[in-house]
């Protein structure tokens, strides 16, 4: 059974106004003091002071992952409250914000080099790590999961608002994130040697600061023996995070089996993958997506059904099939995180109510 773990970026907000609060340093300092020398398990700073990152340990059981995600979110909420803030699993802030960059030499270099791209980059994603046996297997997986990543983005879409207004998208985070020079879809690499050569060539352009800025939709992890799938918004509800993780593991296992069987990657161009990702960001699960087998528009439930069919055997073998089907039924019925945010706004109370609802659902 492949291990799986997740990293989630959470927004720090004022409990009264819902506005983002730049208190990550205070939160981490208090957590470190309370933990007698550590920053608490899986609690880290991010690019902006208005956000925190939580991380689970690797596990093989989705029930254990669900418990860890909820535990980490609750821990982050407790530490945030000690600094007079709350945490919200929102991929962008619904309310206007002018973010404050986190302290550190690397962050200062990012700000100096990338200007407004860095200054405005207050976005929260979800990264899923799935264990692989080697870099060779990992790159074979990356080559074969490319057509399906846009569907994961659509399922996770949780960022309809930007700077106080409706963006017209379900995942505006993904468009803001796409401003980085290395972000997005990539070509088929064919081998681990070619993958590493491509990364080195990108670094030699002096456009990226380091390997930490290899922002592919999915990549080999720098620190762990995993494939890191980075395409998703942070999910409003912990159960949706577990759903994304289960599907991600299913994709990795299905791709690895196809590689071992000698099946070649689908010949999808980067241009088509970018179109599919844009459509996923626009539609979420509320409208049409680009079908990754036919490359034609299809209703979101049809495309999601094709994804489940694609990974069916891997989900079944892992014991995740029933969980995925039940979770998808719930997610599709409420329109995902973006649908929930817009529904909350429609009920009244403005964007402040959207943030308050997100605070509640983050730890519920």
Q: What keywords describe this structure?
A:
Creatine Kinase, Chain A, domain 2, 13% strand, globular, 364 residues, seven-stranded antiparallel β-sheet, single chain, alpha+beta
Task: Characterise the protein shown here.
Belongs to the glutamate--cysteine ligase type 2 family. YbdK subfamily. It is an enzyme of class 6 (ligase). It comes from Streptomyces triculaminicus. There is one protein chain. The chain has 364 residues and is α+β, with helices and mostly antiparallel strands. It has one domain: 2-Layer Sandwich (Creatine Kinase, Chain A, domain 2). Helix content is 49%, strand content 13%. The protein has helices at residues 24-34, 62-82, 105-114, 116-119, 135-145, 149-156, 172-177, 192-203, 238-260, 270-283, 300-310, 312-318, 321-334, 336-346, 350-363, and strands spanning 4-13, 43-45, 51-55, 86-88, 125-131, 161-162, 165-166, 218-220, 226-233, 288-290, 297-299. The strands form 3 sheets. Strands 1, 2, 3, 4, 5, 8 and 9 form a 7-stranded antiparallel beta sheet that branches. The two termini are 29 Å apart. The mean pLDDT is 96.
Mean of all residue-level pLDDT scores? 96
Alpha plus pi helix count: 15
| CATH C-level category | Alpha Beta
Secondary-structure class: alpha+beta
Q: Runs with pLDDT <50, length 5+?
A: none
User: What is the tally of beta strands?
Assistant: 11
Helix content: 40-55%
Instruction: State the CATH topology.
Output: Creatine Kinase, Chain A, domain 2
Sheet with the most strands, sense and barrel status? 7 strands, antiparallel
**C-alpha termini separation:** 29 Å
Strand content: 5-15%
Helix-strand string: EHEEHEHHEHHEEHHEEHHEEHHHHH
Shape: globular
Family: Belongs to the glutamate--cysteine ligase type 2 family. YbdK subfamily.
Pfam families: GCS2 (PF04107)
InterPro entries: GCL_type2/YbdK_subfam, GCS2, Gln_synth/guanido_kin_cat_dom, YbdK
Protein name: Putative glutamate--cysteine ligase 2
């Amino acid at each position: 059974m492949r291990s799986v773990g997740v990293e989630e970026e959470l927004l720090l907000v004022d409990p009264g106004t819902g506005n983002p609060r730049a208190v990550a340093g205070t939160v981490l300092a208090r957590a470190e003091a309370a933990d007698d020398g550590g920053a608490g398990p899986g609690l880290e700073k991010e690019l902006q002071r208005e956000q925190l990152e939580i991380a689970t340990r690797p596990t093989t059981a989705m029930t254990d992952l669900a418990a860890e995600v909820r535990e980490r979110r609750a821990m982050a909420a407790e530490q945030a409250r000690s600094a007079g803030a709350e945490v919200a699993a929102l991929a962008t802030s619904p309310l206007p914000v002018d973010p404050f960059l986190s302290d550190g030499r690397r962050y200062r270099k990012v700000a100096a080099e990338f200007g407004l791209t860095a200054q405005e980059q207050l976005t929260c994603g979800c990264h899923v790590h799935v264990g692989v046996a080697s870099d060779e297997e990992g790159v074979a997986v990356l080559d074969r999961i490319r057509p399906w990543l846009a569907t994961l983005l659509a399922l996770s879409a949780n960022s309809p608002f930007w700077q106080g207004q409706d963006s017209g998208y379900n995942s505006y985070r993904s468009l803001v994130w796409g401003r980085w020079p290395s972000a997005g879809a990539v070509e088929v690499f064919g081998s681990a040697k070619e993958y590493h050569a491509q990364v080195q060539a990108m670094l030699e352009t002096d456009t990226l600061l380091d390997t930490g800025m290899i922002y592919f939709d999915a990549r080999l992890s720098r620190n762990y023996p995993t494939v890191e799938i980075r395409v998703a918004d942070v999910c409003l509800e912990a159960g949706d995070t577990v759903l994304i993780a289960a599907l991600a593991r299913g994709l990795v296992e299905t791709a690895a089996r196809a590689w071992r069987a000698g099946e070649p990657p689908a010949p999808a161009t980067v241009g088509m993958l970018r179109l599919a990702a844009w459509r996923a960001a626009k539609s979420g699960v509320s409208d049409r997506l680009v079908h990754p087998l036919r490359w034609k528009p299809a209703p979101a439930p049809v495309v999601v059904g094709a994804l489940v069919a694609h990974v069916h055997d891997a989900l079944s073998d892992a014991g995740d099939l029933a969980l995925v089907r039940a979770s998808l039924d719930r997610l599709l019925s409420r329109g995902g995180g973006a649908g929930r945010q817009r529904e909350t706004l429609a009920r009244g109370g403005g964007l402040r109510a959207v943030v308050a609802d997100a605070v509640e659902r983050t730890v519920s």
